[in-house]
TrEMBL record:
Domain 2Fe-2S ferredoxin-type span(s) in chain numbering: 50-126
A Pfam match: Fer2_2
Organism per entry: Rhizobium gallicum bv. gallicum R602sp
Top-rank taxon: Bacteria
Gene: yagT
Name used for this protein in its record: Xanthine dehydrogenase iron-sulfur-binding subunit YagT
Length: 217
């Protein structure tokens, strides 16, 4: 047997490491001569909450929150606003989309303490004086939902998307990114709504509903 040290690791060392690993996997105990793992310090069990004032749907809410709490969890767990849904909780499905100062965001990816002083609109705040928002009405007219779980996020995102297009913001499929206005073709609508996933695949009806509202605006 030879010990090749050119790579800095001998065959004996490799064999010894393999034996030690096998012993650990079988017994759960370190092999003789192995160093003991350093104990991990337990995480604190109590975190001080902080007082927070949020402006949501034209109402003021005073709440004490753990500073690590997301805006979505604050809606649902502390304020009783359960319209915004928790889907993937990783910002990938769009079910939790709300409007903050008129712009759409994923409320699962932001902390509540970051939004004191902001104007926040959830799905509960779109209707006014008992009248549905035009986007809500269009989703119903076009049957733009099946199970409906993603619908609050879809509607909030659609409202924000129309405002972005009206302001001339281009998308990845816009032919002229310098144009002052954007024509909302079906391709444009699909691209701008690509951050909102409907697992029931009601996309055609969702696009139709958004197109209806864009044409009426």
């Amino acid at each position: 047997m030879t010990n090749d040290t050119r790579s800095g690791l001998t065959r004996r060392a490799v064999l010894e490491t393999g034996v030690a690993t096998g012993f650990f996997l079988v017994t759960g105990l370190p092999a003789s001569g192995q160093s003991q793992p350093t104990p991990i310090e337990a995480a604190p069990t109590h975190v001080e909450t902080v007082p927070l004032t949020l402006r949501i749907n034209a109402q003021t809410f005073d709440v004490n929150v753990d500073p690590r709490t997301t805006l979505l969890d604050t809606f649902r767990n502390s304020l009783g606003l359960t319209g915004s849904k928790k889907g993937c909780d990783h910002g990938q499905c769009g079910a939790c989309t709300v409007l903050v100062n008129g712009r759409r965001i994923n409320s699962c990816l932001t902390l509540a303490i970051m939004h004191e002083g902001d104007e926040i609109t959830t799905i509960e705040g779109l209707a006014e004086e008992g009248e549905l928002h035009p986007m809500q009405a269009a989703f119903i007219a076009r049957d733009g939902f099946q199970c409906g779980y993603c619908t609050p996020g879809q509607i909030c995102s659609a409202v924000g998307m129309l405002q972005e297009a009206a302001a001339g913001w281009p998308s990845h499929v816009s032919g002229d990114v310098a144009a002052e206005t954007v024509g909302l073709t079906d391709v444009e609508i699909r691209e701008r709504m690509s951050g909102n996933i409907c697992r029931c695949a009601a996309y055609d009806n969702i696009v139709a509903a958004i197109r209806d509202v864009s044409e009426e605006a």
